[in-house]
Amino acid sequence: MIKGVKGETKDARIARFLVGGPPLLFLLVFFVAPSLIMILTSFRFPGEFGGLAPITAPEDMTIGEYGITSEAYQFFFSDVLYAKIFLKSFLMASATTLICLVMAYPLAMLIARSEKRFRNLMVLLVVLPFASNFLIRIYAWMIILGPESGLSHFINAVLGIFGIAPITLLFSPFAVLVGMVYVHLPFMVLPLYTNLEKHDPSLLNAAQDLGANAWQRFWRVTWPLSLPGVFSGSALVFIPVLGMFAVPEILGGTGDILIGNLIKDQFLGTRDWPFGSVLSIMLTLAVLSIAGLATWFSRFATRQGTV
Amino acid sequence: MGRSNIWLWSLAALIYAFLYIPLAIVVLYSFNDSRLNAEWVGFTLFWYKALFNNTEMLTAARNSLIIALSASFSATLLGTMAGLAIHRYKLKVLPVLVFTPVAMPEILLGVSLLLFFLQVLNLTLGMVSIIIAHTTFCIGFVAIIVRARLEGMDENIFEAARDLGASPWQTFRLVTLPLIMPAVVAGALMSFTLSIDDFVITFFTKGVGEPILPIQIYTMIKVAVTPEVNAISTLLMLLTLIMITIAARLEARASARTMSPDKAGK
User: Fold this and answer.
1) Residue A23 to chain B, least CA–CA distance (Å)
2) Which parts of the sequence belong to the ABC transmembrane type-1 domain (chain B) (predicted)?
């Protein structure tokens, strides 16, 4: 943590303690301790009226359950429903990541290859909408996909020509996907741009001189070099989507719930804290493995690219 | 080459349209003389007037302002310290603690803080719990900005100050602090924006009493959508835009003045 360094003067040690100490202490109390509490909570019994049952035996012995248990974990693994919701969330996160990648890549490439003086402005234009309130950005799609919107009327008119019954866009998995992509797109553009901007244009010229066509130049030169950017962008999109509850809540139908909604319900709806904690821990494990994978792939790609 | 460029440009134009049209629609309909966000009827300021007569919304705005000011103040203080400590002392644990809350899904921080507040601190949820929660995730953002600025700076400046006999405190107050000030201000503005916009963590750490702006907006969207939502959205966008412009101005002016010449271009 804050280890002594050899040859350090007393003043410097005090300075280090004064500068590093307060943020360390604050985060130990309000980040590390809450995480530990969550792990503890996952091993307890839920209380009769929400919350938790006591750890020690109650004096009047009116409550049946107390102490420590792995019941919530067993419950999680006993019902295939939860595995299905996790799978659905993974699919949603994968689809969002893929669409963001397909949209962001050409844009990032264009920004990286345009004149230097335009680059910052173009990046700013990607980030700017992102500065508006998160709920507002979701709400905007509620208007666009709503049953009375121009888009809905247009699509249903077109479908009508082919004799297909009208569809509703809002409150569907499609609406959730659109909302997820919209909210997370800048997370993909920025790391891709940062990577592509560093590419040496002479590599592409060399490839061209050696007879590579446009596709080969992209696939054999640009793409492999951009993999670290692809992986970090993907992690930055995938991870928040995995835990998102507001987008399905607002744009999705009743059947479109993801892990986030499930967790939210345990804490604010049915108030089953131990099970909510188990779900949160499972989400944390999923996030950690995704982040680990992205880092590993990115390092691997960097090594391949440079050697 | 030319043909593929046209393709790229039209794709980019489409993506920029995808980014901006939804927000433009929200702004446009805030001036629309109709309850439905469906078609343009006529210009009105009615929804803005309704908003300013909505006392609960005004209380919520005031509460959110108090929360954002307090959280950005404490996050700026702690985040600047964290940024300095991480840059200077090559610590192992502190960076993990500072940057993880930024990277993980917000819901996890919200839920664990909820459990912590209710079980350990026995705190009645309300303004205080929200301020603490917002501080926790804003520290990381401030630290990232401050550290980035320190990394762009010429280390010789600090050495020169020490050689001239400045104590660590003097070096900090007279050299380091003025140099990192733009990053500190940018971090403060960013924390303010993040705090006033935050929905997820606020949702879990709010009490039942006080109305808070994002929660109020959420309820309006879920329960009864009127263009009043568009009006408050437009005002919030304006506020964020102003904050970003100030931050960008400060940053540009400061880096033009204080970066060492060989690193200024980066």
Assistant:
1) 5
2) 61-247
Q: In this model, does residue B134 exceed pLDDT 90?
A: yes
Could you tell me the residue ranges of all domains in chain B? Answer: 45-264
The domain total for chain A is 1
Task: Please name the residue of chain B whose CA is at the shortest distance from the CA of residue A22.
Answer: B78
> A32-63: string of b/e by CB count within 10 Å (b at 16+)?
bbbbebbeebbbbbbbeeebbbeeeeeeeeee
Best probe of the A interface among B5, B14, B39, B119, by most A CBs < 10 A, is B119
Across the A/B interface, how many CB contacts are shorter than 8 Å? 232
The ipTM value here is 0.82
A245 vs chain B: nearest CA distance in angstroms?
8
Q: Does residue A134 belong to any structural domain of this protein?
A: yes
Cβ of A276 within 8 Å of Cβ of B85? The answer is no
* pLDDT exceeds cutoff 70 at A122: yes
**Does the pLDDT value for residue B260 go beyond 50?**
no
* Cα end-to-end distance, chain B, whole Å: 29
The angle at the Cα of A118, spanning A115 to A124, to the nearest 5 degrees, equals 140
Domain CATH for A195? 1.10.3720.10
Q: Which pTM value belongs to this model?
A: 0.84
Residue A192 belongs to a domain:
yes
Range of the domain at A120: 79-306
In angstroms, the separation between the Cα of residue B148 and the nearest Cα of chain A is 15
